[in-house]
Specification:
Layout lengths: L1 E12 L2 E12 L3 E6 L5 H9 L6 E6 L7 H6 E4 L11 H11 L4 H10 L15 H13 L5 E5 L7 H16 L3 E5 L12 E6 L2 E6 L1 H8 L3 E6 L5 H8 L2 E3 L3 E6 L1 H12 L7 E5 L3 H9 L1 H5 L1
Parallel strand pairs: 3-7, 3-8, 5-6, 6-7
Antiparallel strand pairs: 1-2, 1-4, 8-9, 10-12, 10-13, 11-12
Helix pairs in contact: 3-4, 4-5, 7-10
The structure holds adenosine-5'-triphosphate and magnesium ion.
The site of adenosine-5'-triphosphate has 12 residues, from strand 2 and helix 1.
Length: about 300
């Protein structure tokens, strides 16, 4: 079932077109990462889905309803880019306040505080919270409901590595229960394994929108194979396989997907000469560069 349906959406602020003809949809339980440089239009796209700013042209529907309608608003949990709270309230008071606004039982809010790891600090005033703790309160309020659609704008900024990991566990749970999750991020490495689809925006346009493996196939970026020998045998190995010798005893090769298996066969056929093999597909960072600067790639 389609939860978020964006069709040819554009947004202009005066002469400046910040979102250009973007079509993107999210099904129930899908986790989609929205990537793009600063000013690419990610936040604007989310704000349009929220009904905070109207589309200039095109159409957006949330559960079939227009953005900003009662049905759409009730379905969405939103974590804004910069979260601002009432510093004089405790974390618990703030979340209870949000829960009451959404007519949700306050007990649910307490469970969420635990889920985001704030139980110990929930009676402290928010003004004493660290950046990451404020981010967690923001996340907890976005999860109240739970929402059918979670729009999370740079949700992991300010979170330490363990907290980021825990955050993606929460996203996984949400998605398993059917929530569609659209999250923007500049932290590419953590997204590789934690999202179903990658959408890349540049200068307002959506330049890619597919699973990581499909993006890899289309981009045809080489796969790196590092073969380790010993200092004595590396020269023979390099002669046999071609490729570049690095660090004295490693030979580095680059191949396309369709050549990978046969090359690996040749390498393992070298028997004792080979001590270890590392196979590294194109990273999301390399793919991001490939898709977000197409002009450069074509030169
Ligand atoms: N209210 C506004 N009035 C005028 N221009 C705006 C407005 N809101 C956004 N813009 C412009 O729209 C463009 C896209 O901004 P947006 O905030 O959507 O980018 P972003 O992809 O979220 O960037 P970042 O990664 O820095 O958060 C920018 O050029 C920005 O200056
Ligand atoms: Mg933004």
């Amino acid at each position: 079932m389609t939860i978020l349906d964006i069709k040819n959406a554009s947004k202009s602020f005066g002469d400046l077109q910040t979102v250009c003809d973007v079509s993107l949809d999210l099904a129930e339980g899908e986790r989609v990462a929205l990537l793009g440089h600063n000013g690419a239009g990610k936040t604007t796209l989310m704000r349009m889905a929220l009904g905070l700013t109207p589309v200039t042209s095109g159409r957006i529907r949330v559960l079939g309803a227009p953005p900003g309608s009662r049905k759409a608003r009730a379905a969405i949990g939103f974590l804004p880019e910069s979260v601002a709270f009432h510093g004089a309230l405790t974390g618990r008071e703030q979340l209870h306040h949000f829960a009451r606004l959404k007519s949700i039982k306050t007990g649910v809010a307490d469970d969420l505080l635990e889920r985001v790891g704030l139980t110990a600090a929930m009676h402290r005033k928010i003004r004493t919270y660290s950046k990451g703790m404020r981010q967690r309160i923001g996340l907890a309020q976005a999860l109240l409901g739970p929402p059918r659609l979670a729009l999370l704008d740079e949700p992991t900024s300010g979170l330490d590595p363990i907290s980021r990991h825990e955050f993606y566990d929460i996203v996984d749970d949400l998605a398993k229960n059917g929530t569609a999750v659209l999250l923007s991020s500049h932290a590419l490495t953590e997204l590789e394994t934690r999202t179903d689809r990658i959408a890349i925006m540049s200068k307002g346009r959506l330049l890619a929108n597919d699973s990581l493996s499909a993006l890899r196939t289309t981009a045809r970026l080489p796969i790196k194979i590092d073969v380790r020998a010993t200092a004595d045998t590396a020269a023979r190995l390099a002669k046999n396989l071609g490729g570049q010798r690095i660090n004295g005893c490693t030979v580095s090769l680059e191949v396309q997907q369709e050549e990978k298996v046969s090359l690996l066969g040749r390498i393992t056929g070298l028997g004792e000469l080979v001590k270890d093999i590392d196979v590294t597909p194109a990273s999301l960072e390399a793919l991001y560069r490939h898709y977000s600067v197409p002009d450069q790639e074509e030169k």
